[in-house]
């Protein structure tokens, strides 16, 4: 004996019978932005590639600090220890940002993401803010590891303590990690393909730096559009008004513009 229950239906023009509306209140709010942010933060490290990249960064940083501790009895200023921790993070962390953006398109999970949150701009902003949070955490970790290594050199190796460091150097170290991670996210949004984004991130700025050094016709433009060159005065400890303008121009060209275009494309490109 079987029993069937007909779902409630409503009549429509033309004699078509449609299912009755589901009873109860309808949700009036979309996915909270804080939840999107948590999801994007988890995407950066909740993959095999992301985890191994973080492990690789840790190994490189540990190796760099170990070399500084061993050579010359670790007698080096805190600034050098800070450079040893920030440089590997600035070079490798952007790949994590690229993967967080391109993995959805290369693994074809973008359809699920934009079905759960159709407002793609909110997803793009969540990825960008997640990159900033990761960069801030990386900077704090770099400062802490550098301080521990310098303190260990003083206490265990008898090195001379030299904690003096300029404010512009601190700003440069933090900006180095933050800007390059944002640039990785920007290239990921712009190209939406992991190999293309990784190659473009490493090759294009390097090629432009080499071109600006070798070709005299583009040397003046390189002074304004080479991000590596415009950030150098921060690490020196002094920066003039013109150098601030050059830094702002290079950041606009290599970070802000690709990020803006990438967000625009992410909001409009067809999801397959």
From TrEMBL:
The keyword Transmembrane helix applies. Coiled coil: none annotated. Keywords: Membrane, Transmembrane, Transmembrane helix. The chain crosses the membrane at residues 52-70, 82-102, 123-149, 169-191, 198-218, 244-265. The keyword Transmembrane helix applies. Residues 1-13 have a biased composition (Low complexity). Residues 1-26 are annotated as: Disordered. This is ABC transporter permease. It comes from Phycicoccus avicenniae.
